Amino acid sequence: MTALTLSTAAAPGLRADAIVIGVAKGAKGPVVAPGAEAVDKAYDGRLAGVLETLGASGAEGEVTKLPAPSGFKAPLVVAVGLGAEPENDARFDGEALRKGAGTAARALAGAKKAAFALPLTDAADAGAVAEGALLGAYSFDAYKENGKDGRNGKNGKAPLAEVALLGGKPRDKAYKAAVERATAVSEELNRARDLVNTPPNDLNPESFAAVAQTAAKEHGIKAQVLDVKALEKGGYGGILGVGVGSAAGPRLVKLSYTHSKAKKHLAFVGKGITYDSGGISLKPAGHNETMKCDMSGAAAVFGAVVAAARLGLEVNVTGWLALAENMPSGSATRPGDVLRMYSGKTVEVLNTDAEGRLVLADALWAASQEKPDAIVDVATLTGAMVLALGNRTFGVMANDEAFRSAVCEASEEVGEAAWPMPLPEHLRKGMDSPTADIANMGERMGGGLVAGLFLREFVGEGITWAHLDIAGPAFNEQGPFGYTPKGGTGSAVRTLVRLAELTAAGDLG
Ligand code: BES
Ligand code: MN
Ligand code: ZN
Predict the structure, then answer these.
(1) Could you tell me where the beta strands, DSSP code E, fall in 311-373?
(2) Rounded mean pLDDT of 468-477?
């Protein structure tokens, strides 16, 4: 991945391919953001005018390239739009910095080294710029064979290799910690993106479990993998019922990160359908091409647990990856079948495409047995949530209103768009089954909330729980923006890490 360092170097003398500066949208045209003083000075203080002449406005996502002034060792200045200039000399918010840094990193694909001279008020800003740059530089080219060195990212260009943050304080503890945090979180988030982007003929429950086991070992996390035999022995009817149609059998992976000073225990549960064909209730063409993304919840949980371990957070975090491939076959679960779940409840499967809730139900019940202080599940669960919130915002449901607010606030802090959704009691009766305790489908209207109500039935009594439906933001089918690439996005990793940090600090629950 891209290497990142804090630097005290002055922009003019720095050997790099480009100097990145910020430009904001002011009341009377573009304004140069703090951090770029040396560049502006070399343009005799006329940089804002030069940028305006080149058509720059300072709008978010805008990139303007101009030759560096004479005397600079770097040949190029890249001015990146940061959006509206903050009023009354306020600082730029973290998300504006993350997006700007990400946009610049993408624009510099193919370059070896760039110096980022963006506005840094404190260590938190350095962390935001670092995160934006590391996430924005991401590209998935494991399957591109025609690149010179085996890599062939966007337009055949390798990701930006090296970033120096100018104005960073390399000897300041807070700055160092912020960059270390950004690096750990971004690397794990990018690993989650890699897993999502890996085609489903190469990533199945078994290989996903193996990847998790290897990473766990490397970071001092305990890993337990339940294979088909163990799932049968334990009575995990939900996970087995979904996985039974596939030649690649299901797995339940438990990752336990523990800290000797931990006072709290969080459980994260992820939906890990490595491919969702719909099963016997087969999805039509047009609805299955991106369904390798249906393990994004498990990828997010995996990334967050490893990040928590790398950061040494003083909290115990258990990650549960509910892994299965949902396929139609002679051995597949049929609409009409009844499954006996791990909790003992029976479920009538009316639609085999509502499979996420079945694997999650078993994992939620398994997580509940340890009586954690809270459980958060993450899942690409329903198309209904995409219709409701679009493809950049995830829905948050919970059995506790204060916890739902805390999750939404944590998301806001890290720059992930989230929105609270209700669990209306009247929708429960739509899942009444004449045969079993509950059906896996209910009313079509409010389908995302119906799925949330189903999950709630499998959370242990008295345990605080939240459900994140990331079906919209998990996979970006449109063009890249800010620090978000096309394809797997790593949605929810940063929210989960933030929740673990808040819990460690005693600020949650
Ligand atoms: N994995 C899908 C949900 C999904 C849709 C994720 C779009 C990402 C993008 C899920 O398993 C599913 O098929 N849900 C059904 C449920 C229905 C059958 C009750 C849906 O939303 O249509
Ligand atoms: Mn499905
Ligand atoms: Zn699914």
Answers:
(1) 316-326, 338-340, 346-348
(2) 98
Per-residue pLDDT tens digits for 343-398: 999 999 999 999 999 999 999 999 999 999 999 999 999 999 999 999 999 999 99
Whether 328 contacts 269, CB under 8 Å: no
Mean pLDDT, the chain, as a whole number?
Answer: 96
Model confidence at 152, in pLDDT bands (50, 70, 90)? low
Per the model's pLDDT, the better-predicted residue between 155 and 413 turns out to be 413
Following CA atoms 198, 200, 206, 211 in sequence, which dihedral angle do they give, to the nearest 10 degrees?
A: 0
Q: Judge whether residue 147 has pLDDT over 80.
A: no
DSSP 156: G
Burial of 29 (0-12, 13-18, 19+ CB in 10 A): middle
**How many other CB atoms sit within 10 Å of the CB of residue 445?**
10
Ligand 1: atom nearest CA of 474 is: 8
Nearest CA to ligand 1 atom 7: 383
Give the Cα separation of 204 and 227 in Å (integer): 13
Q: How far is the CA of 105 from the centre of ligand 3 (A)?
A: 33
**Structural domains of the chain in order of their starting residue, each with its CATH number:** 3-168 (3.40.220.10), 190-504 (3.40.630.10)
Count of alpha carbons within 13 Å of 195, Cβ hemisphere only?
Answer: 32
Structure tokens at 442: 């209910």
Residue 17 to residues 10, 139, 365, 397, Cα–Cα distance (Å): 15, 19, 53, 46
Output the CA 329–ligand 2 centroid distance in Å: 15
Closest atom of ligand 1 to CA, residue 355: 11
CB 353 near ligand 1, within 6 Å: yes
Strand order of the sheet with strand 265-276?
222-226, 251-257, 316-326, 265-276, 374-379, 464-469, 394-398, 418-420
Q: Looking up tokens 């306020």, which residue turns up?
A: 90
C-alpha span between 236 and 168 (Å, rounded): 51
Q: Is the CB of 377 under 6 A from ligand 1?
A: no
